[in-house]
Amino acid sequence: MDDIQSLREALRQSPNNIPLKILLAEALIKSALFDEAELQMKEVLAIQHEHLRANILLARIFFLQKKYSAALVILEGLVERVDSNPEILLLYAKALFKEGAKEQARTYYQRALKINSSYVDEEMDNEFRLRQYEKNVGNNEDEEDFDDEDDSIQNFEKPSINFTHVGGMQYVKEQIGLKIINPLKFADLYKAYDKKIGGGILLYGPPGCGKTYIAKATAGEINANFINVSIHDVFDMWLGSSEQKLHAFFETARKNAPCVLFFDEIDALGANRNDMKNHAGKHVINQFLSELDGVASNNDGVLVLGATNVPWHLDPAFRRPNRFDRIIFVPPPDVESRKSILEILLQKKPVNSIDYATLAKKTADYSGADLKALIDICVEDKLKESFSSGIPTPIATKDLVKALDKHKPTAVKEWFQAAKNYALYANDTGLYDDIAKYLNLK
Ligand SMILES: Nc1ncnc2c1ncn2[C@@H]1O[C@H](COP(=O)(O)OP(=O)(O)OP(=O)(O)O)[C@@H](O)[C@H]1O
Ligand SMILES: [Mg+2]
Prior knowledge:
The structure is a single chain. The protein is of the alpha/beta class. The protein has 3 domains: 137 residues, Tetratricopeptide repeat domain (Serine Threonine Protein Phosphatase 5, Tetratricopeptide repeat, Alpha Horseshoe), CATH 1.25.40; 182 residues, P-loop containing nucleotide triphosphate hydrolases (Rossmann fold, 3-Layer(aba) Sandwich), CATH 3.40.50.300; 75 residues, Orthogonal Bundle (Helicase, Ruva Protein, domain 3), CATH 1.10.8. Helices cover 59% and strands 7% of the residues. It contains 22 helices and 6 strands. Strands 1-3-4-5-2-6 form a 6-stranded mixed β-sheet, with helices on both faces. Magnesium ion binds next to helix 12.
C-alpha cells in the first residue's frame, strides 16, 4: 500500500509520466484495485494509443475482472502486432479458454511455452494434461497414439566422423569402447559370460571440450545411426505431448538400431525433481527413466549417451544402475591432446610446417572449441590477406600465434570456478572426485 501511496504522490508531481503510471497500475493490480488501475491505463492509452505495456495491463485488468470478451478484443490486436511475446500469448490463451475456445487456447498456450517454457500456468496445464491423459487411456495406451513419431526423424543422421577425428580424450574413448561399443560388437561373447549389457554413459565437463563431438563420433565409429536430442526438442511440446515426444525418440532409435541416442543438455531434463515447481516436468523425467529402463531390458542396439556441463543439477535417480551408471568427466585437453586436436583441425588446410608442440604449449586453458575458433580466426585473416594478392599462402605457425591474441579462452576457467565449490563442499557421494583430482584438491 505504501508503494501505491508514494506512486500516487509522485504522479501528482508529474501527472503525464507514463512509466510512473505503469508502475502504479502494476501495484494497483497486485492490490486488486482494478478500477483505479483501469483508469490509469486508459489515460496512458489516450496519450499513446499503441502503448504495448499499457495495453497488456489493461487486458490483464479486464481478465482479472472476468470481463473476458473485453480482454480478448485487446489481446487479439496485440497478438496480431507482436506474435512472440509469451506474456501476451499466455493471457490470450487463458482468456480464450474462459470463453470456451479450448482448442485455440491450447494452441496459444503451447506457443507461449515454446517461446519461454517458464510461462507455465497451472490451470492450463491441468486442463490439457488431463485431457491428454484421458486420450491415452481411452486408446488403451496404443502405440499408434504416439503420432509425433515422424517429427523426431529430423534429428537423424549417419555421422561421417569417428574416433580418429577426435583428438585426445583417450580415457573417454576407452570407456565408451568398453561399455557401449564392445557389447554391440561382441554381443555373443557377452551372452556366453552372461554379462549384462545396458546402461548409458553420461559425459560431463566444461563447455567446448568435445562431449557432443565424441558422442557423434561414437556412432560413426560403429557405423550406427545417431540421434541428437536436444532437450528443447522434447520440451517444445510441453503439454502432455512431451512424454510422447520422448517416447518417439526412443522408438525411432529402436527401429533404426544400431543407434546412438544422445541427450544433450540432459540437466534440463533431469533438473532435480524436487526443484521442479510444476509437476509437468516430473512426468517427463519419469517417462525418461522408464524409457531408459526399457532400453536396458530390451538390449536392442540402442546406445544411450548423455551430456551436461552442470552435473550438480542432475536428478540422482539418473545415476542408478542401468541408467547412467557410468559418469565420466571430460576434462579440457592436456598439452598432448591439444597438439593432436590442432593437427586434426588443420588436416585439410594448406599449412607450412606448423610447430604443433609450441602451439600446444601456448594454448593452456583452450578447449577444443577454443582451438577451433582460433583456427577459424586465422583462416579469416589469411583469406583477407589473399584477397589483395590473389594468391593463397599456407598457414604458418606465426599466423596462429598472431590469432592467439584475438581469441582468449574464458569458458573453461569460469566452469572450474563453479565446479570447485561442488568438489569441495558437495562431494559426499564422490561424484566430483575427478574434478577434485584435476584441480589437485585432494
Ligand atoms: N577432442 C576434440 N577433437 C577434435 N575437435 C574437437 C575436440 N573437442 C572439441 N572439438 C571441436 O570443438 C567443437 C565443440 O565441441 P563440443 O560441441 O563437442 O563441446 P561440448 O563439450 O559438447 O560443449 P558444450 O558443453 O558447450 O555443449 C567440436 O564441434 C569440435 O569441432
Ligand atoms: Mg555439447
